[in-house]
Design brief:
alpha+beta, eight-stranded antiparallel β-sheet, 209 residues, DNA-binding, 4 helices, 13% helix, globular
Length: 209
DNA sequence: GCGACGATCATCT
DNA sequence: GATGATCGTCGCG
């Protein structure tokens, strides 16, 4: 299994979802689904900041059957279906009812490459296995049925790593694919590792160091 | 490498 | 009935 240890409950309960989104870079995501262990280093995330964020499903305190999990205490995953086709993996953060979440957009595969290739039906380009949120969830075997699973369990979790990500390695940029008005269209709440070939490049807009 | 486009359906109005 | 936190494919050059 992993050599590190799982991130703690307290880690996920941090109220600063934007800082957490940056901090998740370099951590190792694991799933053990249908008996096969897969893992990868998180290289791209986006923060969705509670009721104030026009880009969030929880904007304005909106609470429906779909997004109910966003209101849970930090440390569970929020899964939903996008465009009727793709499942998205989010990490719920903050205290109960704060409705913060972090979309995990890309990872560098580490363990379970064969299983990932099989799930993605992609056998000749490992850089693309977990590139983009829909691809990542599929490679890790996650779908809407896994909504609300705790990150303290044995099906999906995230581990600390000893290697540090230096602040200079992190790029801040506007989030991808949001058809919303300013200022939340351009607020730089997407984070990814500079020059990393596993990061999704689609819809890239103006970037900051 | 990049832009355009269509697929496809849970969810909400 | 309209929408969308996307992706793979195609054409281009």
């Amino acid at each position: 299994m992993g050599q590190g240890h799982k991130l703690s409950k307290e880690y996920y309960c941090n109220e600063d979802v934007v800082a957490l989104a940056a901090d998740l870079l370099g951590k190792e995501l694991f799933t053990c689904i249908e008996g096969s262990l897969c893992s990868g280093i998180i290289v791209e995330t986006e923060a969705y900041k509670g009721p104030e964020d026009l880009g969030s499903h929880a904007y304005g305190g909106r609470r429906t059957a779909r997004n109910e999990t966003m209101y849970a205490e930090g440390g569970v995953i929020y899964m939903y279906v996008c465009y009727g086709i793709h499942d998205m993996l989010n990490v719920v953060t903050g205290p109960e009812a704060s409705s913060h979440a972090i979309l995990i957009r890309a990872a560098r595969p580490v363990q379970g490459l064969e299983q990932m290739r099989e799930r993605r039906m992609l056998f000749n380009d490992d850089k693309r296995l977990c590139k983009g949120p829909g691809s990542l969830a599929k490679a890790f075997g996650l779908n809407k049925a896994h909504d609300k699973l705790p990150l303290s369990g044995d099906l999906v979790w995230i581990e600390e790593r000893t290697e540090l990500v230096k602040p200079g390695d992190i790029v801040r940029a506007p989030r991808v694919g949001l058809n919303i008005i300013e200022p939340y269209r351009s607020v730089p709440w997407r984070f990814y590792l500079r020059d990393c070939p596993f990061v999704s490049a689609r819809n890239r807009r103006a970037e900051q160091g």
